[in-house]
Amino acid sequence: MVKIAYNSIYAHPLPEGHRFPMIKYELIPAQLLHEGSIIQDNLFSPNICDSETILLTHDATYLDKLMQQTLTASEQRKIGFPQSPMLTKRELMITQGTIDCCHYAFKNGVALNVAGGTHHAFADRGEGFCMLNDMAVASNYLLHHQLVEKILIIDLDVHQGNGTAKLFENNPAVFTFSMHGQHNYPFHKEKSDLDVGLTDGCDTDTYLNLLYQHLPELITTIQPDIAFYLSGVDILETDKFGKLKVTLEGCRQRDAYVFNTLYKHQIPVVVAMGGGYSPDVKTIVEAHCNTYREAISIYS
């Protein structure tokens, strides 16, 4: 059974006026349950990630600021959210959810976190709606416990995974692959192991052909024990900030290709949703739900 990490706190950590970015986290599982793509047993609620595990990736001073609610106004502006105990709890729960998904992926081939993909978080700071880097924490957890030797992070959000790239720039056990808008946020790019910068207006065929070109070669060369897949839907032509021209169907084809390729090579995969900022939330939810539908179709 495909397992999915979700808790209602994913959608409700913010005061009124800040909730739009979060509402999709409530609507995604609701839609999947409504249409019968999943049942309640597919969902599990993670606990809070412990400090020892977080500190494998993040600095103690930064974690203390999150726990004690002592981020400066400037630090909060860079993150994009006002700090609160519930928001910190949410981040710790999402991070544990991604770790838990690793164990489910080893067993079932795939597991998905309704939130996560917080790839702009660095060791000592958060940026771009990201406070803790869940995939980096999960990667370091797996390496620390000697559960894997080689990890591939497939970051297909429209924004470069700058925090992830920086965290693993000197770690040969983790290969970071980011395919993103070259002229999009973050405007200072870090160096991933492989960066594929996309020009503004990149269409579906161009996008998919680049993915077809790079992903199989990476898998053959790296031979990872597990992959993390950040399946942002801000590549859509409807996205307010994405600057690309990928269709909804093209986004679905992207997900199907990633899953089929990893499945063929028997590489377990952990998925997190990443960004999506289309004006109509129904478009965002449909694109994210397609990710789940493809995973369930292939792995069930």
From TrEMBL:
<dbReference type="Pfam" id="PF00850">
    <property type="entry name" value="Hist_deacetyl"/>
</dbReference>
<dbReference type="InterPro" id="IPR044150">
    <property type="entry name" value="HDAC_classIV"/>
</dbReference>
<comment type="similarity">
    <text>Belongs to the histone deacetylase family.</text>
</comment>
<dbReference type="InterPro" id="IPR037138">
    <property type="entry name" value="His_deacetylse_dom_sf"/>
</dbReference>
<protein>
    <submittedName>
        <fullName>Histone deacetylase</fullName>
    </submittedName>
</protein>
<dbReference type="InterPro" id="IPR000286">
    <property type="entry name" value="HDACs"/>
</dbReference>
<dbReference type="InterPro" id="IPR023801">
    <property type="entry name" value="His_deacetylse_dom"/>
</dbReference>
<keyword id="KW-0378">Hydrolase</keyword>
<feature type="domain" description="Histone deacetylase">
    <location>
        <begin position="22"/>
        <end position="289"/>
    </location>
</feature>
<dbReference type="InterPro" id="IPR023696">
    <property type="entry name" value="Ureohydrolase_dom_sf"/>
</dbReference>
